[in-house]
Amino acid sequence: MYLREKFSLRTSHRHRYHYHRCYQFTNNSRRNIIVTKTRVMNSTTRNNALTNNEGERIVNGSCYCGKCELTVIGKPIAVSICHCTICRRLSGGPFSIQSLHERAKFSCTVQANDLWSIQSSDNVQRFRCKECGSPLYATIGKAKTFVVARSCLKGIEKDDLDFRAQHHLHYSQRVIDIEDDLPKFVGTCAPGRSIPWTPEKSRVQ
Ligand SMILES: [Zn+2]
Ligand SMILES: [Zn+2]
């Protein structure tokens, strides 16, 4: 599924009838377009990644039951591993991995009003599928940034450079140690508020 402005047909008018069967508008004011995957793979595959006409990468995803489909366009703003107690309780895992995307680079086939949601902190609203309960995404602030659960994105290899985790957040709240070379922060990594984590600091917490 793509935002309407991110989709166009690269075919002569003569061939459009054929392509009409390959996409459809979603019912929410024609903002999103669903494209048959095989058709996109044939027409715009580059370096094994789906791209739009501007050459931006397209990554699709869905919840467990498939009712909610997500699309993110382009490289994420950031990719974080979060160890905070909220992420852990709401994901059911020892940490969560998520990628940040601008609002214009994110879309979901199910409207926010039709998803289960919870305001987990002052400026964070989390959304999940009402049918299967899969975590899908969260919004930060006035929904300018979308934080997408890595668990529901598809077709991303473990070592994918675009989606490789860049740091650990709230590492002082962790329940397991992660031995990698990524920067670790006591809490957030927001400019001006970030405190690098060190083993000594973890004992103070
Ligand atoms: Zn679902
Ligand atoms: Zn968290």
Secondary-structure blueprint of this entry?
Layout: E1 2-3, H1 16-20, E2 23-25, E3 32-35, H2 37-44, E4 45-46, E5 49-51, E6 57-62, E7 69-73, E8 78-82, H3 85-91, E9 96-102, E10 106-108, E11 116-121, E12 124-128, E13 135-140, E14 145-149, E15 167-169, H4 199-204
Parallel strand pairs: 8-15
Antiparallel strand pairs: 1-3, 2-3, 4-5, 5-6, 6-7, 7-10, 8-9, 9-14, 11-12, 12-13, 13-14
Bound molecules: zinc ion (2 copies).
Q: Mean pLDDT, as a whole number?
A: 83
How many distinct beta strands?
15
* Overall morphology: globular
**CATH topology label of the largest domain:** Metal Binding Protein, Guanine Nucleotide Exchange Factor, Chain A
What is the count of helical runs?
Answer: 4
Q: Separation of termini? A: 44 Å
Which residues form runs of ≥5 with pLDDT under 50? Answer: 9-30, 34-44
The hetero compounds bound to this protein are:
zinc ion
- What oligomeric state do the depicted chains represent? single chain
Give the amount of beta strand, in percent. Answer: 25-35%
The CATH architecture of the largest domain can be named as Beta Complex
CATH class of the largest domain: Mainly Beta
The strands making up the biggest β-sheet line up spatially as 11-12-13-14-9-8-15
